[in-house]
Amino acid sequence: MSRATVRVEVPGDSLFGPENMPYGIFAPPGGEFRVGVRLGEFVLDLAVLLDDPAFAQPDLNSFLAQGPTSWRVVRERLRELADSPLPAEAVHAFDSIRTALPVRIGDYVDFYASLDHATNLGRLFRPDAEPLLPNWRHLPVGYHGRAGTVVVSGTPVVRPCGQRRTDSGAPEFGPSRRLDIEAELGFVVGTASRQGEPVSVDDFGDHVFGVALVNDWSARDIQAWEYQPLGPFLGKSFATSLSAWITPLAALARARVPLPPQEPEPLPYLLGTDDHGFDIDLAVTWNGETVSRPPYARMYWSPAQMLAHLTANGASIRPGDLYASGTISGPERDQRGSFIELSWGGIEPVTVGDAPHTFLTDGDEVTITATAPGTAGRPIGLGAVGGTILAAHEPGPQEFRSAG
After folding, report:
1. Does the annotation mark 144 as catalytic?
2. Contact 240, 323 (CB under 8 A)
3. pLDDT at 220
4. pTM of the prediction?
5. What is the pLDDT of residue 394?
6. What pLDDT digit, counting tens, does each position of 277-309 carry?
7. What is the CATH code for 5-100?
8. Which of 182, 185, 165 is nearest to 174 (CA)?
9. Domain extents for the chain?
10. Would you call 250 helix, strand, or coil by DSSP?
11. Which member of 117, 207, 309, 357 is catalytic?
């Protein structure tokens, strides 16, 4: 008996045509989670199409570990199949599926790679000093985040509680009053490196599989009290949202752009023969209204430099590891990728709907999208990342007492 087939029709102006085909983890109605790619308004089941057990897994790690040759072969095969009738059981409507975190993340690192963002925060936090600290132009500043609280797009975010400094200087405990976003680009590691062996700038493409949008939610008041001298902790670790879809680097071949001038010249381990940035334009919507359009092309430190610095001391990377760019901002107000910048520390409210807003209130919804030049000469889209703020869980005094 012949199998039923369907042909996937993709409009010419789709942001998810065959030149894109981002990977994710999905479950069809009544089915288990497995690997799929998005094509137009459909998701293709790779376990059915390619008969490979790596694609029947609930995360992409097994496929990522196969390395660049396998990534290229699979991508070429999928693009061929996209032009042919496909088994009906391998094709699912995008609006009928459920998504999950696309990778099993072992480590998560967050950088601080935007000159505009770092300058803005320096002016806010240190108005009487140089905006940039002395090390900023010499290395990609970063910190080790909490992999266990990276969640897939669409997961609600509970307002965090923590210590905040009061006007008197003494701390108090309670829900964050300055809850913020950070519009970022994440980089998903494919192949591992050995501990003790740094990854060079020119080996970026051998280790990184693709990119995904990130929102690193931030509690600015908690962060301000706790971050000295060791850096971000509870103000960042409560939630980081990751898109359900990872765009392979191959889809961004025409989005590569030169880096902005780096002065002084970085140390030799941060230099490569083919380093580059990406021409990716983000859009931040707050309760359905676009409030910012951060440009990734202005980022000072490249993703390859971030990876080289991350591993410069011999730290190893593994399939599924995630590192993010830090907030993406431009020189104009409507290009700022965080609300602390957009509202200038809360003193210049942003009109959302008919009301002034500074930081996030309960019930607010934020969605970040992005486009980039595609290999077919038309834009491609990155999978959106979004989340809604829920009210804090405020423990009563009895919840702080030991159960014993």
Report:
1. no
2. no
3. 98
4. 0.96
5. 75
6. 999 999 999 999 999 999 999 999 999 999 999
7. 2.30.30.230
8. 165
9. 5-100, 108-392
10. helix
11. 117
